[in-house]
């Protein structure tokens, strides 16, 4: 029965290929990276792209690719001769992934999940092992690897309640797919329980690879020097998502001409700074939205300075800075005294707060953090983060924290301690991959060449 259902699924994905091509053309208008090597997605590759014995790692987007980079470093430490085949699904993931490649590595797009495309991908590259990052499983690809005896593992695995509910609704497809994985290494015990409920066999709970990331020391050093010159403390809205910037700007509009909320006549002092006493910075999650967010800031009556237009970190006497660059989050977190967590003020599940902690930047998060539920709770419990109900509370709490340097420094130290306490997932995962590889036969380059794509 599963074989029949899988064939029906494969027929559906085959029929969807024209829609995928149209979607890629539309996305390429805002992100030209989507127009690069489109035929790779359909299993057609340059003749020079071949070889055998690859350690294949699939990381769909930017966050997964950064986690993959941490794992690749650990694997290279274990085996310097490692040859990586890296696949990605998004333009930002592919751009980030290109920085991870060694001279003998290769990068292509993820194959679209139809039987013919998957066959061409596996025929061309014949990986020894496949490592899928975090959540990314595809039924046809997973079944094809199992049929060929290619062990396919899910590393840094996570599954939230919403995705589990979807997996249960599609149990006829999801359960056999999870069950066919050679290994699953979960981030947390809660993820492990959900993955088992979805049909996976979990082989270990190793923690989150992102705790093993080392912030860019050059960026942090530059941020420290710039902070000494800044006249105001900085609050960054990190990895903001569509709709959230408007929430922040509306609150700032409301508060910037009002007397500071929390004035205590009895105490004779303000319990938080006025809005104008803080430098606000917005760093959108998706680069295709940079221009849109800049226009929104100006439409709300704020002066905006864009990172891309400045030789230094940002413009000087400007109400709002826009961090419209990629790969500089360590700089932005290093400049900030506190971060508002993007994705948590709309029902989007939140973004990763681990990088902020590693940079010693306290976090204020909204109510929606289901994508990183355990990390968020641990961060709050450690004193590195605060949770609030809405954007107005977030802004007021940020202003209050800026008026209390002792408390802010306490949170900085808590963030650094929180980050260092949860390291080790990379070494554990690399060791488990090494054990899987040790059970695989050596692959000879003398195997007959695959058919032409």
Top keywords for this entry?
453 residues; alpha/beta; seven-stranded parallel β-sheet; 16 strands; disordered C terminus
Radius of gyration: 24 Å
Mean pLDDT: 91
Ends: how far apart? 31 Å
Low-confidence regions: 263-269, 311-315, 444-453
Strand order of the largest sheet: 3-2-1-4-5-6-7
The number of distinct β-strands equals 16
What characteristic shape results from the CA principal axes? globular
Strand proportion? 5-15%
Structural class: alpha/beta
Query: How many H/I helices?
Result: 18
Largest sheet: 7 strands, parallel
Proportion in helices:
40-55%
Characterise the protein shown here.
With 453 residues, the protein is α/β, with parallel strands linked by helices. Helices cover 44% and strands 14% of the residues. It has 18 helices and 16 strands. The chain has helices at 2-15, 17-30, 62-78, 91-98, 115-125, 139-148, 161-169, 171-179, 189-198, 217-227, 244-256, 290-299, 329-335, 354-358, 373-382, 391-402, 405-421, 425-438, and strands spanning 55-58, 84-88, 106-109, 129-133, 152-157, 183-186, 204-205, 234-240, 263-264, 269-270, 279-284, 304-306, 320-322, 338-341, 363-365, 385-387. The strands form three sheets. A seven-stranded parallel β-sheet has the order 3-2-1-4-5-6-7, sandwiched between helices. The protein has a seven-stranded parallel β-sheet with strand order 12-13-11-8-14-15-16, sandwiched between helices. Residues 263-269, 311-315 and 444-453 have low confidence and may be disordered.
């Amino acid at each position: 029965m599963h074989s029949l259902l899988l064939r029906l699924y494969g027929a559906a994905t085959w029929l969807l290929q024209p829609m995928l091509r149209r979607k890629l053309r539309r996305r390429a208008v805002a992100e030209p990276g989507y127009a690069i090597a489109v035929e790779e997605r359909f299993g057609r590759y340059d003749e020079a792209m071949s070889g055998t014995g690859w350690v294949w790692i699939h990381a769909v987007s930017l966050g997964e690719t950064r986690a993959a980079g941490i794992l690749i470093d650990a694997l290279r430490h274990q085996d310097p001769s490692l040859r990586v085949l890296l696949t990605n699904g998004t333009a930002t993931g592919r751009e980030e992934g290109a920085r991870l490649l060694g001279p003998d590595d290769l990068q292509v797009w993820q194959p679209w999940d139809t039987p013919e495309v998957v066959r061409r991908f596996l025929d061309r590259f014949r990986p020894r092992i496949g490592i899928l990052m975090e959540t990314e499983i595809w039924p046809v690809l997973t079944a094809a690897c199992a049929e060929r005896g290619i062990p396919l593992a899910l590393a840094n695995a996570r599954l939230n309640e919403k995705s589990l509910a979807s997996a249960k609704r599609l149990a006829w497809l999801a359960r056999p797919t999870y069950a066919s994985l050679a290994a699953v290494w979960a981030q947390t015990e809660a993820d492990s329980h959900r993955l088992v409920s979805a049909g996976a066999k979990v082989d270990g709970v190793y923690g989150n690879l992102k705790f093993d990331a080392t912030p860019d020391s050059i960026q942090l050093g530059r941020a420290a020097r710039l902070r000494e010159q800044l006249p105001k403390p900085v609050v960054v809205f990190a990895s903001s998502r569509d709709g959230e910037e408007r929430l922040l700007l509306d609150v700032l509009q409301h508060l910037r001409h009002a007397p500071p909320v929390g004035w205590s006549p009895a105490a004779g002092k303000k319990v938080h700074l006025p809005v104008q006493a803080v430098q606000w910075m917005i760093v959108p999650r998706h680069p295709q939205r940079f221009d849109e967010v800049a226009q929104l800031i100006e439409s709300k009556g704020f002066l905006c300075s864009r990172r891309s237009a400045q030789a230094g970190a940002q413009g000087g006497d400007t109400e709002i800075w826009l961090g419209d660059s990629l790969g500089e989050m360590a700089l932005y977190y290093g400049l900030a005294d506190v971060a508002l967590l993007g994705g948590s003020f709309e029902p989007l599940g939140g973004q990763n707060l681990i990088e902020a902690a590693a940079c010693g930047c306290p976090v204020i998060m909204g109510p929606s953090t289901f994508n990183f539920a355990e990390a968020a709770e641990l961060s709050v419990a450690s004193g590195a983060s605060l949770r609030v109900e809405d954007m107005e509370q977030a802004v007021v709490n940020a202003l209050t924290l800026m008026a209390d340097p002792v408390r802010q420094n306490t949170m900085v130290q808590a963030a650094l301690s929180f980050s260092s306490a949860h390291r080790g997932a990379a070494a554990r995962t690399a060791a488990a991959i090494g054990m899987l590889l040790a059970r695989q036969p050596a692959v000879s380059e003398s195997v007959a060449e695959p058919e032409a794509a």
